[in-house]
Amino acid sequence: MRVLAVVLLALSCAATAAAAGGGGGGAELPEFREAPAFRNGAACAGAPTIHIAMTLDATYLRGSLAGVLSVLRHAACPESISFHFLASSASPARRLASLRRALAAAFPTLSATVHRFDARLVRGKISSSVRRALDQPLNYARIYLADLLPRYVSRVLYLDSDLLVVDDVARLWATDLGPDAALAAPEYCHANFASYFTDAFWRRPEYASVFANRTRAPCYFNTGVMVIDLDRWRAGGYTAKLEYWMEVQKQEARIYELGSLPPFLLVFAGEVKAVEHRWNQHGLGGDNVAGQCRELHPGPVSLLHWSGKGKPWLRLDAGRACPLDALWAPYDLLRRHGARDDLLAAVA
């Protein structure tokens, strides 16, 4: 009986943690608190609209809401920001309605639109990777931003749902893409670029030659923070080019292991407009297997990104937080009944 009690207790704790993390296909979503209202000042008159795209699903909802709060908290003109949330068409209507209610509860006056991403677009194109989360269709929605967003949106800032912005996002939005670039992002040229592709890729000259005529030597960049010129994207047919490499991976040879990232490298590496590293202090979630704790990279910080397996809300709930997870905690809008809102007050 004692063993049974321990097992039941463990199952109960696991269910509680899953609910708090926003996971679970059929579970009800947790409740979220209303965030402080952030308003434009007089100096914002005539400020351009900043368009930000993020995904919206049950698993990462808690991270998405924290990310939105961080953007608004540090923006000089928060009411000039328009959010575009990408939600899977495969989600039941009831779940989508719950996601909308959670968003509205946390941000009643937010300028936001939910766009349905048709998961059938990537059916048959996704191959298994090193981490199951990377294989979800919504992880590929960023490839279709030019089709999902209205034509009047000519530029968009794509942000992952496991990050915090701790600077005025208008500075990133104002990135000069130059005369030709369709995409800007921080590059990491010290990384071993060859390791992002398999030996099978490098053995095939018809594959490896894709990098031969790039403007610069190809470098790794993280697709969780991107400034995209959608007009240039459409003119360049980049969605089809990304789909081509997904089909090669699925039908011809296994040329990579990391979900939606390698197709972006294959299409854009060497043609990316470089952004300061401060705008993507990535890897705070550790690697894709262990999710171990990591420290910040040297230099100034404008954006903290928990890319990797370890997510701050899950580690905090489990009592195994890494030191930097404490920076995420004040932006957590999860309602804990009976708990005080001292942390939320810290970002008001």
TrEMBL record:
The lineage of its organism: Eukaryota, Viridiplantae, Streptophyta, Embryophyta, Tracheophyta. InterPro entries: Glyco_trans_8, Glycosyltrans_8_dom-fam, Nucleotide-diphossugar_trans. Belongs to the glycosyltransferase 8 family. Keywords: Glycosyltransferase, Signal, Transferase. SUPFAM superfamilies: Nucleotide-diphospho-sugar transferases. GO terms for molecular function: glycosyltransferase activity. The keyword S-adenosyl-L-methionine does not apply. GO terms for cellular component: Golgi apparatus. This is Hexosyltransferase. Its EC number is 2.4.1.-. Pathway: Glycan metabolism; pectin biosynthesis. It is an enzyme of class 2 (transferase). Residues 1-19 form the signal peptide. The keyword Transferase applies. PANTHER family: GALACTURONOSYLTRANSFERASE-LIKE 3-RELATED (PTHR13778:SF13), GLYCOSYLTRANSFERASE 8 DOMAIN-CONTAINING PROTEIN (PTHR13778).
